[in-house]
Please model this.
Amino acid sequence: MSCFSRSIRIVIVLTVAAPLAASCGNLGGSNSDKPRVIAGFYPFAYVAERVAGEHATVTNLTTPGVEPHDLELTPQQVAEISDADLAIHEAGFQPSLDDAIEQNPPHDTLEVSKVLELSETRLAEDTEDGQQDDHEIHPDESADVDHSSHDGDPHLWQDPTLLIPVAEQLADDLASADPDHAADFKANAAAFVKDLQELDHDFEAGLADCERREIVTSHAAFGYLADRYDLTMIPIAGLSPDVEPSPQRLAEIQDLVETHNITTIFSETLGSKEYAQTLADDLGVTAAVLDPVEGLAEDGSGEEDYLSLMRANLAVLQEANNCT
Model:
């Protein structure tokens, strides 16, 4: 008999680190026969949709057009989290979710960073000769730019390959909880992994030969992308899009733009475009949008998804950096 004698609620959120776990657990009070997947914001909602397929309903707590950092939970959403059987989470992206899980914990948790640590350990064991993976290119360090330091950076989905172990772990957990659909979860994850690998290949090929490799972004949301594809991120602000850059920082960026012959200043889909646009106007360069893919735009077509948004990013990067 399936573990789903009652429905399982599953929460996918980014929040404070907790032990990696997965189990069927005590079931929440939904009337649906399908597991209910609740995501804190878009990228993990998309992973859940792809892996669960038709065997779960997926709800994104952050509505289109809302900056996910600013999410404030309703009492109903807090209750849904408390009733959940599995939380998939990573530290600190949405403080309101951090608090909700700490104060009203779901039955079990799966910590994304733990999944990635296990994946990196396996990779290290497979490459004991010390050779760096051909796709893992890290530029030389500089005081002026941001390359490979991810302290506090939750934007791991900007490297498509980092979603692969997350999807596979989710498939394993769903299969354990609902053996009747184990094959479907595994097949869905495999199809998604193939799409992620193709996306990664497109980025590697599309950014292999560029006139410049520096990108000026409105905040430090692209460190994982920069590491993966040998780019140099120059953020106007730090990890929080709400932090106002200092005059000194703006002057530093102006010098870097002129030094590296940068032609484009990138703003974001959901965040403020004020500083990026002003800086671009002052320097006589182009302003464009590079999407952190933290959430969907309110005025979108409804056809966008993680893969299409990332490929749109690839296109604007190729144009901005004159890649051939």
Remarks:
- The domain at 9-113+153-197 is CATH 3.40.50.1980 (Rossmann fold).
- Residues 1-8, 14-31, 129-149 have pLDDT under 50 and may be disordered.
- The longest strand covers residues 9-12.
